[in-house]
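sry for the spam today, last one i promise. struct tokens for design, 214 residues
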């Protein structure tokens, strides 16, 4: 009788432990492309004291110009991909360090502050070239908004935001499924901002590097 009871208990335990514990977990993304398709990634843009340049010029009977260095203070970049592997920029915001203007521009020290470059509209997916499942590149056509202020004599005056339309963003992604990284090149040719026909900023270039946010 005791043997029969023990056998019954063992059978009950076996039956309980053999029942499924719920649906199987989905496989983790194995490649960069899988990770982007599966839900995308959020990356932090690295600070860079010499990430780009912008040309400042002043009219004095003729244009006098020079290149100003742009420093990146940081930022955010979110990327994903559709089922065909086309790359999508879901979010982009870049904080720029203040840019000092030549004293001759306003006749006194002045600088551009509160500088940020951000998406003004969601860009369409961009067909990508994949050199294997972990390395891809594409040119994303985007509309960006530049927000900023002008500081003179300790007084800060917000300037109207500038919308930069149809910008080609050169995007490269790499790494692996657990550590996706990206490089983004921004180029805006021609005038970006002008004041009274006497001062002009033009030809913006930026090179950005982004890694997983910590």
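last one done:
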């Amino acid at each position: 009788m005791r043997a029969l009871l023990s056998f019954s208990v063992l059978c009950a335990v076996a039956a309980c432990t053999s029942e499924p514990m719920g649906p199987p977990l989905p496989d983790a993304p194995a490649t960069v492309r899988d990770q982007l398709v599966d839900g995308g990634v959020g990356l932090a843009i690295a600070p860079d004291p010499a990430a780009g340049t912008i040309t400042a010029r002043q009219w004095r009977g003729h244009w006098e110009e020079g290149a100003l260095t742009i420093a990146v203070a940081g930022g955010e970049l979110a990327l994903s991909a559709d089922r065909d592997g086309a790359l999508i920029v879901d979010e982009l915001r870049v904080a720029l360090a203040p840019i000092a203007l030549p004293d001759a521009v306003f006749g006194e020290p002045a600088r551009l502050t509160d500088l940020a470059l951000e998406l003004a509209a969601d860009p369409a997916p961009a067909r990508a070239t994949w050199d294997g499942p972990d390395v891809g590149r594409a040119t994303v056509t985007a509309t960006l908004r530049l927000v900023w202020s002008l500081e003179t004599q300790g007084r800060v005056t917000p300037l109207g935001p500038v919308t930069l339309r149809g910008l080609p963003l050169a995007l490269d992604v790499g790494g692996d499924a657990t550590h996706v990284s990206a490089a983004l090149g921004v180029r805006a040719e021609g005038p970006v901002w002008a004041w009274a026909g006497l001062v002009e900023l033009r030809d913006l270039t930026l090179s950005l590097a982004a890694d997983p946010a910590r």
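The radius of gyration is 27 Å. ok im logging off now
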